[in-house]
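Onboarding guide, step 5: your first structure request.
Type a short instruction followed by the sequence, for example:

Predict the 3D structure of this protein.
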Amino acid sequence: MVWTEITRAKYCRDGLRYASDTTDEEWAMIAPYMPGKNRRGRPRVTKMRALVNSIFFIAQSGCQWRLLPKEFPPYTTVQRYFYRWRDDGTWQKINHHLVMMAREADGREASPTAGVIDSQSVKTTEAGGPRGFDAGKKIKGRKRHLVTDTAGFLIAGIVHEASIQDRDGAPALLQLIRSPFPWLRHIFADGGYAGPKLRKALTSIGRWTIEIVKRSDAAKGFKLLPRRWVVERTIAWLNRNRRLAKDFEATIASAEAWLMIASVKLLSRRLARV
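The system replies with C-alpha coordinates like these:
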Protein backbone atom coordinates (compact mmCIF):
# COMPACT_ATOMS: atom_id res chain seq x y z
CA MET A 1 0.00 0.00 0.00
CA VAL A 2 1.29 3.43 -0.96
CA TRP A 3 0.97 6.13 1.69
CA THR A 4 -0.91 9.07 0.20
CA GLU A 5 -2.93 11.86 1.78
CA ILE A 6 -6.07 9.75 1.29
CA THR A 7 -4.66 6.58 2.86
CA ARG A 8 -3.08 8.50 5.74
CA ALA A 9 -6.44 10.06 6.57
CA LYS A 10 -8.12 6.66 6.30
CA TYR A 11 -5.76 4.99 8.78
CA CYS A 12 -5.16 7.99 11.04
CA ARG A 13 -5.86 7.42 14.75
CA ASP A 14 -4.72 10.78 16.10
CA GLY A 15 -8.15 11.59 17.51
CA LEU A 16 -8.06 8.70 19.98
CA ARG A 17 -6.65 8.75 23.50
CA TYR A 18 -4.32 5.88 22.56
CA ALA A 19 -3.80 4.48 19.07
CA SER A 20 -4.86 1.05 20.37
CA ASP A 21 -8.30 2.30 21.52
CA THR A 22 -11.35 1.21 19.57
CA THR A 23 -13.35 3.71 17.55
CA ASP A 24 -17.15 3.72 17.75
CA GLU A 25 -17.30 1.81 14.47
CA GLU A 26 -14.79 -0.81 15.66
CA TRP A 27 -16.56 -1.28 18.97
CA ALA A 28 -19.83 -1.78 17.11
CA MET A 29 -18.24 -4.82 15.43
CA ILE A 30 -17.12 -6.36 18.74
CA ALA A 31 -19.83 -5.39 21.24
CA PRO A 32 -22.60 -7.79 20.06
CA TYR A 33 -20.40 -10.80 20.82
CA MET A 34 -19.14 -9.77 24.25
CA PRO A 35 -20.37 -11.84 27.23
CA GLY A 36 -23.48 -10.55 28.98
CA LYS A 37 -23.82 -9.60 32.62
CA ASN A 38 -23.87 -12.28 35.28
CA ARG A 39 -27.22 -12.79 36.94
CA ARG A 40 -25.58 -13.49 40.28
CA GLY A 41 -23.18 -11.49 42.40
CA ARG A 42 -22.53 -7.78 42.47
CA PRO A 43 -23.48 -5.62 39.47
CA ARG A 44 -20.67 -5.06 37.00
CA VAL A 45 -19.34 -1.50 37.17
CA THR A 46 -16.47 -1.72 34.67
CA LYS A 47 -17.43 -1.01 31.08
CA MET A 48 -16.69 -3.72 28.54
CA ARG A 49 -15.23 -1.24 26.07
CA ALA A 50 -12.72 -0.02 28.67
CA LEU A 51 -11.63 -3.62 29.30
CA VAL A 52 -11.20 -4.35 25.60
CA ASN A 53 -9.25 -1.12 25.12
CA SER A 54 -6.99 -2.12 28.02
CA ILE A 55 -6.28 -5.53 26.53
CA PHE A 56 -5.69 -4.03 23.08
CA PHE A 57 -3.24 -1.57 24.65
CA ILE A 58 -1.23 -4.39 26.20
CA ALA A 59 -1.31 -6.34 22.93
CA GLN A 60 -0.09 -3.42 20.83
CA SER A 61 2.41 -1.88 23.26
CA GLY A 62 3.67 -5.11 24.82
CA CYS A 63 3.73 -3.56 28.30
CA GLN A 64 3.52 -5.56 31.52
CA TRP A 65 0.24 -5.84 33.37
CA ARG A 66 1.45 -3.64 36.21
CA LEU A 67 2.49 -0.90 33.76
CA LEU A 68 -1.03 -0.43 32.40
CA PRO A 69 -1.73 3.34 32.43
CA LYS A 70 -4.01 4.74 35.13
CA GLU A 71 -6.58 5.86 32.55
CA PHE A 72 -7.61 2.22 32.20
CA PRO A 73 -9.37 0.09 34.82
CA PRO A 74 -7.12 -1.46 37.50
CA TYR A 75 -4.76 -3.98 35.97
CA THR A 76 -6.01 -6.69 38.35
CA THR A 77 -9.53 -6.21 36.98
CA VAL A 78 -8.34 -6.29 33.38
CA GLN A 79 -6.23 -9.37 34.08
CA ARG A 80 -9.16 -11.17 35.69
CA TYR A 81 -11.36 -10.57 32.65
CA PHE A 82 -8.52 -11.58 30.33
CA TYR A 83 -8.26 -14.96 32.06
CA ARG A 84 -12.03 -15.39 32.12
CA TRP A 85 -12.41 -14.68 28.40
CA ARG A 86 -9.35 -16.80 27.64
CA ASP A 87 -10.84 -19.81 29.39
CA ASP A 88 -14.41 -19.52 28.05
CA GLY A 89 -13.32 -19.03 24.42
CA THR A 90 -14.66 -15.49 24.06
CA TRP A 91 -11.88 -14.34 21.74
CA GLN A 92 -12.25 -17.38 19.50
CA LYS A 93 -16.00 -16.74 19.20
CA ILE A 94 -15.53 -13.08 18.34
CA ASN A 95 -12.82 -13.92 15.80
CA HIS A 96 -15.09 -16.52 14.20
CA HIS A 97 -17.89 -13.99 13.65
CA LEU A 98 -15.54 -11.27 12.41
CA VAL A 99 -13.90 -13.63 9.91
CA MET A 100 -17.28 -14.45 8.39
CA MET A 101 -18.24 -10.76 8.30
CA ALA A 102 -14.94 -9.82 6.65
CA ARG A 103 -15.34 -12.53 4.04
CA GLU A 104 -18.86 -11.39 3.19
CA ALA A 105 -17.63 -7.79 2.98
CA ASP A 106 -15.10 -8.99 0.38
CA GLY A 107 -17.86 -10.65 -1.63
CA ARG A 108 -16.97 -14.21 -0.55
CA GLU A 109 -18.96 -16.97 1.07
CA ALA A 110 -19.00 -16.65 4.86
CA SER A 111 -17.42 -20.08 5.36
CA PRO A 112 -14.17 -20.80 3.48
CA THR A 113 -13.51 -24.03 1.62
CA ALA A 114 -9.71 -23.75 1.46
CA GLY A 115 -7.04 -22.58 3.87
CA VAL A 116 -3.31 -22.02 4.17
CA ILE A 117 -1.23 -23.47 7.02
CA ASP A 118 2.15 -22.40 8.35
CA SER A 119 4.06 -21.97 11.61
CA GLN A 120 6.38 -19.49 13.27
CA SER A 121 8.93 -20.33 15.95
CA VAL A 122 9.45 -17.64 18.59
CA LYS A 123 11.68 -17.35 21.62
CA THR A 124 10.27 -17.62 25.13
CA THR A 125 11.35 -15.75 28.26
CA GLU A 126 12.02 -16.52 31.92
CA ALA A 127 8.24 -16.77 32.46
CA GLY A 128 8.59 -20.54 32.10
CA GLY A 129 6.06 -22.99 30.75
CA PRO A 130 6.36 -25.58 27.97
CA ARG A 131 9.09 -24.94 25.41
CA GLY A 132 11.33 -26.82 23.02
CA PHE A 133 14.15 -26.38 20.51
CA ASP A 134 13.53 -25.89 16.80
CA ALA A 135 16.64 -27.42 15.28
CA GLY A 136 15.88 -26.05 11.83
CA LYS A 137 15.61 -22.40 12.88
CA LYS A 138 17.88 -22.67 15.94
CA ILE A 139 15.21 -21.23 18.24
CA LYS A 140 14.45 -22.34 21.79
CA GLY A 141 10.86 -21.55 22.59
CA ARG A 142 7.43 -22.25 21.14
CA LYS A 143 5.84 -22.57 17.75
CA ARG A 144 2.73 -20.69 16.64
CA HIS A 145 0.77 -22.85 14.24
CA LEU A 146 -1.80 -20.98 12.14
CA VAL A 147 -4.43 -21.63 9.51
CA THR A 148 -5.84 -18.74 7.47
CA ASP A 149 -8.33 -18.62 4.66
CA THR A 150 -7.11 -17.64 1.19
CA ALA A 151 -7.72 -13.96 2.04
CA GLY A 152 -5.40 -14.11 5.04
CA PHE A 153 -7.98 -14.02 7.84
CA LEU A 154 -6.98 -16.12 10.85
CA ILE A 155 -9.18 -19.24 11.06
CA ALA A 156 -7.49 -21.05 13.94
CA GLY A 157 -4.23 -21.06 15.83
CA ILE A 158 -2.48 -23.18 18.42
CA VAL A 159 0.81 -22.88 20.28
CA HIS A 160 3.09 -25.78 21.17
CA GLU A 161 6.73 -26.55 21.83
CA ALA A 162 9.08 -25.51 19.04
CA SER A 163 10.50 -29.04 18.98
CA ILE A 164 7.27 -30.42 17.49
CA GLN A 165 7.54 -30.66 13.70
CA ASP A 166 4.95 -29.01 11.48
CA ARG A 167 3.48 -32.28 10.23
CA ASP A 168 3.07 -33.53 13.80
CA GLY A 169 1.36 -30.38 15.04
CA ALA A 170 -0.98 -29.96 12.08
CA PRO A 171 -3.63 -32.59 13.03
CA ALA A 172 -4.43 -30.89 16.36
CA LEU A 173 -4.77 -27.55 14.57
CA LEU A 174 -6.99 -28.87 11.79
CA GLN A 175 -9.17 -30.64 14.36
CA LEU A 176 -10.18 -27.19 15.66
CA ILE A 177 -11.57 -26.20 12.25
CA ARG A 178 -14.03 -29.06 11.79
CA SER A 179 -16.86 -27.57 13.82
CA PRO A 180 -16.69 -23.80 13.13
CA PHE A 181 -15.81 -24.18 9.43
CA PRO A 182 -17.15 -27.58 8.30
CA TRP A 183 -16.62 -26.94 4.57
CA LEU A 184 -12.92 -26.15 4.87
CA ARG A 185 -11.19 -29.32 3.77
CA HIS A 186 -8.45 -28.24 1.33
CA ILE A 187 -5.17 -26.97 2.77
CA PHE A 188 -2.22 -25.32 1.02
CA ALA A 189 1.09 -25.95 2.76
CA ASP A 190 4.86 -25.91 2.33
CA GLY A 191 7.23 -28.84 2.12
CA GLY A 192 7.28 -29.31 5.89
CA TYR A 193 3.84 -30.92 5.66
CA ALA A 194 4.67 -33.35 2.87
CA GLY A 195 4.73 -37.10 3.27
CA PRO A 196 2.40 -39.95 4.21
CA LYS A 197 2.70 -39.42 7.98
CA LEU A 198 0.44 -36.36 8.02
CA ARG A 199 -2.00 -37.78 5.49
CA LYS A 200 -2.40 -40.90 7.60
CA ALA A 201 -2.94 -38.86 10.77
CA LEU A 202 -5.65 -36.79 9.07
CA THR A 203 -7.72 -39.83 8.10
CA SER A 204 -9.05 -40.05 11.66
CA ILE A 205 -10.39 -36.46 11.69
CA GLY A 206 -12.14 -36.26 8.33
CA ARG A 207 -11.47 -36.04 4.62
CA TRP A 208 -8.67 -33.56 3.93
CA THR A 209 -6.60 -32.74 0.87
CA ILE A 210 -3.13 -31.27 1.36
CA GLU A 211 -1.63 -29.36 -1.59
CA ILE A 212 2.10 -28.78 -1.21
CA VAL A 213 3.35 -25.52 -2.74
CA LYS A 214 7.05 -26.09 -3.29
CA ARG A 215 9.81 -23.66 -4.07
CA SER A 216 11.57 -24.39 -7.35
CA ASP A 217 15.09 -25.78 -7.02
CA ALA A 218 16.17 -23.39 -9.77
CA ALA A 219 14.85 -20.30 -7.97
CA LYS A 220 17.42 -17.91 -6.55
CA GLY A 221 16.88 -15.23 -3.94
CA PHE A 222 13.44 -14.09 -2.86
CA LYS A 223 10.49 -15.59 -4.72
CA LEU A 224 6.80 -15.01 -4.00
CA LEU A 225 5.16 -18.43 -3.75
CA PRO A 226 1.47 -18.85 -4.60
CA ARG A 227 -0.87 -19.20 -1.60
CA ARG A 228 1.98 -19.49 0.92
CA TRP A 229 2.56 -15.75 0.96
CA VAL A 230 -0.98 -15.24 2.33
CA VAL A 231 -0.37 -16.89 5.70
CA GLU A 232 3.13 -15.39 5.91
CA ARG A 233 1.60 -11.94 5.46
CA THR A 234 -0.90 -12.70 8.24
CA ILE A 235 1.96 -13.65 10.58
CA ALA A 236 3.57 -10.30 9.77
CA TRP A 237 0.27 -8.51 10.49
CA LEU A 238 -0.07 -10.20 13.88
CA ASN A 239 3.55 -9.48 14.78
CA ARG A 240 2.87 -5.75 14.63
CA ASN A 241 1.59 -6.28 18.17
CA ARG A 242 4.60 -6.10 20.45
CA ARG A 243 3.09 -8.59 22.87
CA LEU A 244 3.84 -11.16 20.16
CA ALA A 245 7.48 -10.09 19.64
CA LYS A 246 8.34 -13.06 21.86
CA ASP A 247 6.23 -15.55 23.75
CA PHE A 248 6.09 -13.86 27.17
CA GLU A 249 3.38 -16.15 28.55
CA ALA A 250 3.76 -18.79 31.24
CA THR A 251 0.92 -20.88 29.77
CA ILE A 252 -0.02 -22.11 26.31
CA ALA A 253 -3.61 -20.92 26.81
CA SER A 254 -2.52 -17.30 27.30
CA ALA A 255 -0.20 -17.46 24.29
CA GLU A 256 -3.08 -18.67 22.11
CA ALA A 257 -5.40 -16.00 23.51
CA TRP A 258 -3.06 -13.18 22.44
CA LEU A 259 -3.04 -14.55 18.90
CA MET A 260 -6.83 -14.30 18.79
CA ILE A 261 -6.81 -10.85 20.39
CA ALA A 262 -4.41 -9.59 17.71
CA SER A 263 -6.66 -11.06 15.02
CA VAL A 264 -9.81 -9.51 16.52
CA LYS A 265 -8.13 -6.10 16.64
CA LEU A 266 -7.04 -6.45 13.03
CA LEU A 267 -10.43 -7.60 11.73
CA SER A 268 -12.46 -5.02 13.65
CA ARG A 269 -10.34 -2.23 12.16
CA ARG A 270 -10.66 -3.68 8.69
CA LEU A 271 -14.44 -3.99 8.93
CA ALA A 272 -14.83 -0.48 10.35
CA ARG A 273 -13.14 0.94 7.25
CA VAL A 274 -15.48 -0.82 4.82
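Each response can be followed by summary notes, for example: Residues 100 and 110 are 5 Å apart (CA to CA).
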